[in-house]
Structures are given as C-alpha cells and as structure tokens.
Amino acid sequence: MTSYIKIPSHLTPSDPQGSELLARERSKATFDVNELTLALYGSEELSRFKKILKILESDPILDKSNIYYMGRTELFKYALRKDKRIIQLAATHKWNVDEFKIASRLVDMSGPYSIHQSMFLPTILGQGTEEQKRKFLNPAIRHEIIGCYAQTELGHGSNVQGLETTSTYIPETDEFEIHTPHLTAAKWWAGGLGRTANHSVVMARLITNGQDKGPHPFIVQIRDLTTHEPLPGITIGDIGPKFGFNTTDNGFMLFDHVRIPRFNMLSKFSKVTKGTGEYKNPPNEKLSYGTMVFVRSVIIFNAGLALARAATISVRYSAVRRQFVDKENPMILPNGQVVETAVLDYTMQQYRLFPVIAQAYAIYFTGEIITNLYKQYIDQSSRGDFSLLADLHASTSGLKSLTSDIAVDSIEDCRRSCGGHGYSNFSGFTRFYQDYLPNTTWEGDNYILTQQTARYIIHSKQQSEEFSLRSNESPTIFYMLRYLSNPSQKCTVISPSDFKNPEVQLAIYGYRAAYLIARAVDQIDNHKKSWNSMLVEINRISRAHCQYILVHNFILTLQPQTSDSMNEKRRILHNSPSLKTVLTSVCNLFALHTMEKNLSEFLESGYLSPKQSEMLRVQISESLNEIRPNAVALVDAFYLPDYLLNSALGRYDGKVYETMIEWASKEPLNGITLDINPYSEKLFRNDVKAKI
Ligand SMILES: CCCCCCCCCCCCCCCCCC(=O)SCCNC(=O)CCNC(=O)[C@H](O)C(C)(C)COP(=O)(O)OP(=O)(O)OC[C@H]1O[C@@H](n2cnc3c(N)ncnc32)[C@H](O)[C@@H]1OP(=O)(O)O
Ligand SMILES: Cc1cc2nc3c(=O)[nH]c(=O)nc-3n(C[C@H](O)[C@H](O)[C@H](O)COP(=O)(O)OP(=O)(O)OC[C@H]3O[C@@H](n4cnc5c(N)ncnc54)[C@H](O)[C@@H]3O)c2cc1C
C-alpha cells in the first residue's frame, strides 16, 4: 500500500518498548498459555486453525491492509472478491464445513454470501425433504445458486405471525402464487438480496382452500441465472447505507403474483397435497421457526469470541499504554529507571477490563454446552422426538439476548478503555463494533426474546405439578424447585472469601431467580396484572435465569467429571492444577461481578444482606488482584491472531505506536491536493464545485 508521508525512520517509541512490556506481562503468568489454548479448542481444531490461518494470511486477495480506507462501494466489491476467494480456497484445499467456518471467522467480514451460508443452507437442510435437498441444497453447496433468507418485512419483523406476504395454493396448476399485498409487506433487510442472490427462502402466509395457515418457508428463484436480472413480477433493490454491516447487500423485494411450483414449499414438516390443497400439520407448530433456533445458538457461541477479541485488544494495549507515575507504587525498569505506570496497573482499568475477560470465558463455555444441546436436539428430532425443543427455544432465546447484550456493552467499554486511540479505526474496534451491533436485533430483538424465556418459566411455575416434572427433565430449570421450596432461607456468607464457594454462588443466583419468578406469578395470578404491565419484570426474570445458567455452566466446566464423559479439552483442563486455579479465579470474578451489577435484585430477594454486599465488593477486589498477573496470558490463550484483530492497539508484539504512525501515513487524504482558499471559486447551492 502507498505511503503518502515519509516518516523519519530513526525514531522509536520511548523506553520501555511495547514488546518489552508485553514480554514482562507474559513472564508473570502462573499457567501455560499453550495448554489453556488447547483446553479451549482441542488439538485437532487448533491445528486446522493454524493451517488455515497460514493460507489466508499469505493470500493477496485476502489482504486486509487497505480496508480501513475504503468507502461502501469499494468495501462491498472487496467483500464479494473475498467471499469468492474463500469458496475457491475451500475447493482447492477440500475444506469441510467446520474449516470453512474457521476461514470465514478469520477473514472476519460479512459479505454478499454470508446469509447464503448462515441461513439459506441451514433452512433447506433443516426444513427440506430429501428430494428438495437434492434439487436446492446440492447446487447451493456448490454455489451454483446463491440464496438469501427473506422473512422480515418493511412493516413487521419481530411479529412473525404478522407477516403479510401471501403464498396461495392454485390447484389448477399445482402452483403457489407469491404476492405482496401492501407496501408494509415488502421484504426488507434480507442479507445478500440487494445485488447478489438468485434464490431466496421466502417466509409467506400459506393460504390453501381459503384458509390461512400462517407463515411457512418457500424457495423462490428471484433472478435470472444468466442475466442476473430480477425475474418478471419481482422488484428488488439494496436498502441503502446502514450503521454498519455495509459489506453485505441487505435488500428489499416486492412480488406481483409470482408463480412457483408446489414442490418449492419446504415440506419436511408440513405439506400441501397436490390438487386437493389439503394441509398436513407439522408434528410441532413451531418447526418452521427452526432456522432461528439454530442461528440463535450460534450467536451465543459467537458472543464469547467477540468478547475475547475486545478483551485481547484492550488488555494488551493497556499493558503497553503508560500514563502518569503511580508514586506509591512506581513502575521501575530492571536498570532502576522509574517510568510512567502502565494503565493496566490502575485498579479502575482492571475493574473495567478483567470482568470482560471473565465474560468471554463464561460465555465461551456456555456456548459449547448450548451447541451440544442443539446437536442432541437434532439427533432426537431426526427420530421424531421433539421433546427438547421447548426448553432449547427458551434457553437459546434468553441466552442469545443476554450474551449479545453483554458483548455489545463490553465491546464499547473496551473501546473506551483505549482512550483516544480507541476511537481510531486502527484500534480494530470500529467495524467490529458496528458489525456486531445487529446481533442484539436480528434473529429476534433482545427484549422480545426475553418474553419467550420468561413465559416458559412462568408457565412451568404456574403448572406446579408439571413444573416439578419438567424441572426434573429440563436441562435448564432444574434448580428452581430447590429454592422455591424454602423461600425464607438466608445466605450463609460470613467472610468475603465465602463468596468463592461455588455452592454459595449458585444458591445466591438460584434464590434471586426463583424470587423474581414467584413474585411475577403472584402479580399475574393474584393481582391480575396484564402481561404488558409486567414486561420489565419479565425481562428481569429472563436475565436472572440466564445469568444462573452462565454461572452454573462455568462451575460445571471446572468440576471434576468422570473420565468417560471427559473429552480431550476437559481432560487437559482437569489434569492441570495451574489452569484450574486461574480459571477458578476467572469464574469467581464472573459470578461476583455479575452479582454486583445486579445487586439490587439480590438484596431485594432478602437472601443477601447489605453487610454481605460489602463483603462481596471486598472479594471482587481480591479476584481482580488474583487475575492481574495473568491478564495478558488469559487473553493470549484465546489465540486470536493479528490477521483477525487487524488492530494497531492489540498487536501481539506490542508495536502500537510504530503501527499507528505507519497506518496513518497511508491515509489517502494525505495524498490529495487541496485548494483551501475560500474565495478561489464561486460555490452554488445546487452545484457545489469544490476543487478536491
Ligand atoms: C457453511 C457454513 C455455515 C455457517 C453457519 C454459521 C451461522 C452463523 C450465524 C451468525 C450470523 C447470523 C446472521 C443472521 C442474519 C439475520 C437474519 C435474520 O434476522 S432473519 C429474521 C429473524 N427474525 C426473528 O428472529 C423474528 C423474531 N420473532 C419470533 O421469533 C416470533 O415472532 C416470536 C418467537 C417472538 C413469537 O412467535 P409467535 O409465533 O407469535 O409465537 P408465540 O409467542 O405466540 O408462542 C407460541 C408457542 O411457540 C413457541 N415458540 C415460539 N418460537 C419458537 C421457536 N423458534 N421454536 C420452538 N418454539 C417456539 C413458544 O414458546 C410458545 O410455546 P407455548 O407457550 O405455546 O408452549
Ligand atoms: C443488519 C441486519 C441484518 C438483517 N438480516 C436479515 C435477513 O437476512 N433476513 C431477515 O428476514 N431479516 C433480517 N433482519 C431483520 C431482523 O431480523 C429484524 O429487524 C428483527 O427481527 C427485529 O424486528 P423489527 O425490525 O420488526 O423490530 P420491531 O419489532 O419493530 O422493534 C422495534 C421496538 O419495538 C419493541 N417491541 C416490538 N414488539 C414488542 C413487544 N411485543 N413487546 C415489547 N416490545 C416490543 C422492540 O423491543 C424494539 O425496541 C436484519 C436486520 C439487521 C439490522
């Protein structure tokens, strides 16, 4: 890339150098970083990751050095090239789905094909018959057709039952007619639709024999495979610039009585019979929402990685960045020189950043557990057993909401913790944050989704008999009975270190959730409160329940398991006392910091006393001290390479200042000629002719 300014090459940052500071941090670690990386990913995934990274890093088309200077059109073209390149590399190197996902994660840019991979393929896979998979899935996997997922409309997104697009069965020709009856029914937001896709999953109301059967998925070819023009009766366009996600062409689409064969209704679960138009009900009414459950489970896992990335940049930078001299505890170099203190040594910075490290680990472990639960559901449902679905839907809804909220808040906290440089694109936060943001809205707005979780729990509590039955079966609400059965119990903590006891932590979280649930049920059943008047409480219930799950899963991960049930990753963890020690500190910080952030609810439940809340703060401070020597090593263990981070601040080698000035010298604005004389030309309101 062209450099527009020549930077004097003899200048280096003042001592100590960033690389030296990070090396000192790394030498303080009490555990083996490589061992923790292996415990997170396993040896097989890690070696695949390294192999793929090597290929991507050296590929000129996937070079990222220019992207911070690009405008939307240029970025979009780059994203299309990069999407094509990953597909070519996948074919050359025979990558499987997991390897393809690793490559996409490393290249780290949503693109025109992203929704093809994340929603179009999974929808056909999950909702199509074998015949439909042959017709649509196979060419889609080979990228002979490119698809998108058009569910949301201009007037409705959250309320899926309120979608207006119709798909009416025409027995005479054995076709469906897809139609947009109102402007509000225009499909809107579908990723890849604007300029790229030639096929779409369209969620439309199925109407047969005059009866409205609600939204169902249909495959519609939307563009000509040769000319790439929209097919007759279909109007398509890109929806325009957005807050972020500008490398994907989110689109709109209108249908004017467009005919598709009956075959194109995805019919794994519900069907329309040829000629009679008879409708066959699915075994569970919500199976057509299956793609959303899958993607929500992926969003939970991805939230952990997003937090790890934010923490990596901000913790490394805070170890390199120095401001003021802490006179009571100055930073002294080996040669005796007193230097400014690394901002990571200020307790306020630790209080802001270390909980983000803890959130990353907590959500990573729960993400793994939810992924396994989803696999278990798919396995059972393939044998006609859908009993896990209700619980899976409830937990993925609430956890998608909670974890993406945590990630969005913490990415911004981490960015701000980098001071002024955090505001520069070179920090690696700008597009990362902008592109992460829609996770709180897509696949269900985060506030709406908490209603799904709370309703499941409240129903369970209302039907007490069924509750005890369900809670025994349910992987996520088993804890509640224990606490509901004895509402007057009090927390046993008598000294700050008692807060480190996992049983104590679980009891505190369990009582608080059970208290909120019991109170809401009382308001609804005995005080006849409406659902709408309870929405704030309902949001609290979902969050309380999901925080319990996160804490519970973290504790579970650290507990010894029978060797049979342990996979390689857990074995590494359990065979290493130093790993267990450091992760126990991280787990404690997650549990206690989350408790402190929601303290009013814990106090309100009467289980925790004000005196105990003071002890809680003492213990949090203690946990921060425990983590301090391991802070850099804990983020290093996530093994997020510079290629992914693309950050001057979060570089592994600590060369922050050298990179900042080098990247600034490449800003194209530095290379243009400007006329800054205000009187050199006449400017007209509608015909601005500045000489730039
Ligand atoms: C090759 C590489 C592959 C790579 C893959 C990588 C993947 C990467 C993923 C990351 C990238 C993500 C990109 C995403 C892009 C955005 C795409 C979208 O936004 S698309 C657009 C996304 N849009 C949205 O997400 C819209 C959000 N809105 C909705 O989902 C629904 O309107 C609703 C759930 C809010 C209400 O639904 P409504 O029909 O009014 O239903 P009621 O409330 O009346 O409940 C009735 C009963 O049904 C139950 N139940 C409900 N849902 C489910 C379910 N899913 N299941 C089971 N059950 C469910 C409920 O519990 C209740 O049970 P009960 O009490 O009777 O026992
Ligand atoms: C970048 C991006 C990509 C997307 N990609 C796709 C895609 O590929 N395909 C697709 O189909 N869709 C896509 N979407 C759309 C997305 O799924 C919807 O925007 C999302 O489901 C939210 O729906 P909405 O926009 O209708 O929000 P609304 O429901 O209009 O939300 C507005 C506000 O109303 C509140 N609200 C609404 N109803 C209630 C209620 N009952 N109780 C309490 N509060 C309520 C919400 O909390 C929110 O604060 C995408 C969106 C974005 C931002």
Automatic annotation (TrEMBL):
Keywords: FAD, Fatty acid metabolism, Flavoprotein, Lipid metabolism, Oxidoreductase, Peroxisome. Its main location: other. Residues 32-146 form the Acyl-coenzyme A oxidase N-terminal domain. It comes from the Eukaryota. Belongs to the acyl-CoA oxidase family. Residues 289-458 form the Acyl-CoA oxidase C-alpha1 domain. This is Acyl-coenzyme A oxidase. Gene3D superfamilies: Acyl-CoA dehydrogenase/oxidase, N-terminal domain (1.10.540.10), Butyryl-CoA Dehydrogenase, subunit A, domain 2 (2.40.110.10), Butyryl-CoA Dehydrogenase, subunit A, domain 3 (1.20.140.10). InterPro entries: ACOX_C_alpha1, Acyl-CoA_ox_N, Acyl-CoA_Oxase/DH_mid-dom_sf, Acyl-CoA_oxidase, Acyl-CoA_oxidase_C, AcylCo_DH-like_C, AcylCoA_DH/ox_N_sf, AcylCoA_DH/oxidase_NM_dom_sf. It holds the Pfam family Acyl-CoA_ox_N. Its cofactor is FAD. PANTHER family: ELECTRON TRANSPORT OXIDOREDUCTASE, PEROXISOMAL ACYL-COENZYME A OXIDASE 1. Residues 501-671 form the Acyl-CoA oxidase C-terminal domain. It is found in: Peroxisome. The lineage of its organism: Eukaryota, Fungi, Fungi incertae sedis, Mucoromycota, Glomeromycotina.
